[in-house]
Amino acid sequence: MAYETIIVEVEDHVATITLNRPDALNALNAQLLAELSKALIEADANDKVRCIILTGSAKAFAAGADIKEMSEKSFVEMFLGDFFEPAIEAVGRVRKPVIAAVSGYALGGGCELAMMCDFIIATETAKFGQPEINLGVIAGMGGTQRLTRYVGKSKAMDMHLTGRFMDAEEAERSGLVSRVVPAKKLMEEARQAADKIAEKSMVATIAAKQAVNRSYETTLTEGLLFERRLFHSLFATEDQKEGMAAFQEKRTAQFRDR
Ligand code: CAA
Q1: What is the mean pLDDT of residues 138-162?
Q2: Predicted confidence band of residue 86 (pLDDT cuts 50, 70, 90)
Q3: How far is the CA of 258 from the centre of ligand 1 (A)?
Q4: Per-residue confidence (pLDDT) for residue 82, from 0 to 100
Q5: CA of 79 to the centre of ligand 1 (A)
Q6: Which residues contact 64 (CB under 8 A, 6 or more apart)?
Q7: Mean pLDDT, the chain, integer
Q8: pLDDT at residue 45 greater than cutoff 90
Q9: What is the rounded average pLDDT of the residues 151-159?
Q10: pLDDT tens across 178-226, in order?
Q11: Hey, what domains does the chain have and what are their CATH numbers?
Q12: Residue among 19, 25, 84, 134 whose CB has most ligand 1 atoms within 8 A, to mutate
């Protein structure tokens, strides 16, 4: 399908989805959210794809939900339209790893979209923020919940209540992003991470993603049990036999997702 607000490229085992509304700093309007949802579901269903990279432009990953589109809406229109939900649901449904490669502004819904991904690689120019308070509203795509889990209550409150931006250095120090790289290296670094992921057993990859995500949803005891059950179940795969044999034979494992 031809998209107007995003660009989708599949190269080898990696699908790269680039948000592409440069005139609006990639603000998330209804069309972009619908296209993004579709592209994510398509990439997840594509057997060739083993990892997805979500990115924006050098200036903005995304500067938030589209304020111009929202500004005149009533409560009932927002409530019934619920137009952020399909994208939130689509990102949540993707079983393959999704890396957010963030340069420039990741604000409001843009910060929230990055946080929905499995991990964030950022450039030194990245700026994260939840400035919705300046518009007389609050975050609406998960920011009060996810930012708090990433960086803790004190910093999350600071960000949501003052609307201040967090630079890349602070974001890395606080655990919001996994790596900070020079601007020119962003896609190379994201691609290298995606290629590394693509080499692994897809069965173990999905199990790892599910287990880490479970830690947000459950008690430690239940999470540990969930992890152990998945760990045990991986001994039913050929990939476990191959991975452990390859280690002992001092060669690279050839995983076949079996
Ligand atoms: N929605 C719609 N348009 C936006 C936008 C947004 N979130 N962010 C930027 N734009 C548009 C601007 O209106 C401008 O368009 P025009 O040229 O037609 O005026 C264009 O993008 C370039 O933006 P600026 O001229 O403002 O660029 P700048 O470099 O001076 O400032 C910025 C950059 C600090 C990111 C500033 O654009 C800004 O503050 N944007 C809004 C950030 C924001 O409040 N985000 C939260 C949105 S609400 C939300 O996301 C709710 C939720 O949780 C789901």
Answers
A1: 98
A2: confident
A3: 46
A4: 87
A5: 23
A6: 27, 28, 107, 108, 109, 110, 111, 131, 132
A7: 97
A8: yes
A9: 98
A10: 999 999 999 999 999 999 999 999 999 999 999 999 999 999 999 999 9
A11: 6-198 (3.90.226.10), 201-249 (1.10.12.10)
A12: 25
Q: Choose the residue to mutate in 23, 61, 67, 146 for probing ligand 1, maximizing ligand atoms within 8 Å of C-beta.
A: 67
Report the alpha-carbon distance of residue 216 to residue 54 in Å, rounded: 22
Nearest residue (CA) to ligand 1, atom 28: 25
**Above pLDDT 70, what percent of the chain?**
100
Give the residue from 85, 169, 80, 150 showing the smallest Cα distance to 111. Answer: 150
Ligand 1: nearest atom to the Cα of 108: 50
CB-based pocket (< 6 A), ligand 1? 24-25, 27, 63-68, 84, 105, 107-109, 112, 131-132, 135, 139-141, 143
pTM of the shown model: 0.97
Task: Give the nearest ligand 1 atom to 84 CA.
Answer: 54
The structure tokens listed for 245 are: 């044999």
d(CA 197, CA 148): 27
User: Are the beta carbons of 23 and 60 closer than 8 angstroms?
Assistant: no
Atom number in ligand 1 closest to CA 66 = 1
For the annotated catalytic residues, the residue numbers are 65, 109, 112, 132
Coil, strand or helix at 40: helix
Which ligand 1 atom sits nearest the alpha carbon of residue 131?
A: 44
DSSP class per residue in 167-207: EHHHHHHTTS-SEEE-GGGHHHHHHHHHHHHHHS-HHHHHH
Span 59-76, pLDDT tens digits: 999 999 999 999 999 999
